[in-house]
Specification:
Number of helices: 2
Oligomer: single chain
Structural class: mainly beta
Shape: globular
Radius of gyration: 18 Å
Largest sheet: 8 strands, parallel, barrel
Number of strands: 31
Strand content: over 45%
Length: 295
């Protein structure tokens, strides 16, 4: 019902607060063939809350609190952009929810929790969006701008805190990360991690892929990656880093670590002339599990 009212009935729920009171199984069941294509066998396909692609760029403005519950059995398989549990959010708070045992496939800006986070200077509902204590343990597939938490973050004043990905995240041409595929804005990320598999199938052009963020221009602190990056053999045009694929503008990283030997570097490409902190440090598995690395 909430998905319908946000996406179809043009309700943005600005200033409203919603809380889950139990785990939710949306009931979809599917099979995946040898080529990796999914077919829905029972249940219904999901329509994102705030279907940014199909409703005139409608966004969710409210507060959604999962109260530490999970959502499972979510199936979304389309050629649309801006797909996820939420399609588009703006000046919103989404917190305390996990997406598990689900399948999301689309084209651009595809995320487990949110497809896209946007920003407007004149937003009457305020300007800061926060995604807090959310996680993904599901399969997320897209063409580009694909992430376990958010596909694309194009808005300023966005906070991502205490979030993680353990799912398999795949992009056809890059722009993929465990947290977000593209976050080229004023994003503040803290205490987040990835242990999932990131698959970058890009074979031409400049392909950005990383355990945390495909492209990034914000601030990250106390984050780590212990996952893996897979795909065609890298060449000069492929920017694959354990933490960041393409780091741009005035970005900074502080106290961020990655499991050694999972990628050639913590940051694959530093396209910036700014003098900031870039702590993207390798660590052994023993160091990561012993508590020696302070966050």
């Amino acid at each position: 019902a909430m998905s319908y009212y946000v996406g179809t009935a043009n309700q943005n729920y600005g200033g409203k607060y919603y809380r889950l009171t139990d785990d939710i199984d949306l009931g979809a069941r599917w099979t995946i063939d040898a080529d990796g294509n999914a077919t829905l066998n029972s249940g219904k396909a999901w329509t994102p809350m705030a279907d940014f692609y199909g409703s005139g760029q409608q966004c969710f403005f409210g507060n959604f609190d999962g109260d530490n519950h999970t959502i499972s059995g979510l199936y979304l398989n389309s050629g649309a952009n801006y797909q996820g549990l939420f399609g588009g959010v703006r000046s919103a708070v989404i917190e305390n929810v996990g997406l598990v045992d689900s399948y999301i496939r689309g084209t651009y800006s595809i995320g487990g929790i949110v497809g896209t986070v946007i920003f407007r200077e004149d937003d009457p509902n305020g300007r800061v969006s926060t995604i807090r204590n959310c996680y993904n343990k599901s399969t997320i597939i897209g063409h580009s701008f694909v992430g376990g938490i958010a596909g694309e973050i194009s808005g300023r004043m966005v906070n991502i805190v205490d979030c993680y990905n353990e799912g398999e995240i795949t992009a056809a041409i890059g722009g993929v990360g465990g947290l977000a595929g593209d976050a080229m804005s004023d994003v503040q990320i803290r205490n987040c991690y990835n242990t999932g598999t990131i698959i970058d199938n890009g074979s031409t052009g400049s392909s950005c892929a990383a355990g945390l963020l495909g492209s990034f221009a914000g601030t990250a602190a106390a984050c780590y990656d212990a996952g893996s990056i897979e795909g065609p053999a890298a060449n000069v045009n492929y920017w694959r880093g354990a933490l960041i694929g393409n780091l741009d503008r005035s970005a900074s990283l502080e106290g961020c670590y990655y499991l050694e030997d999972t990628a050639p570097a913590g940051i694959a490409r530093m396209n910036t002339t700014e003098t900031n902190i870039y702590e993207a440090l390798p660590a052994s598995r023993e160091e990561m599990t012993s508590g020696k690395l302070a966050h």
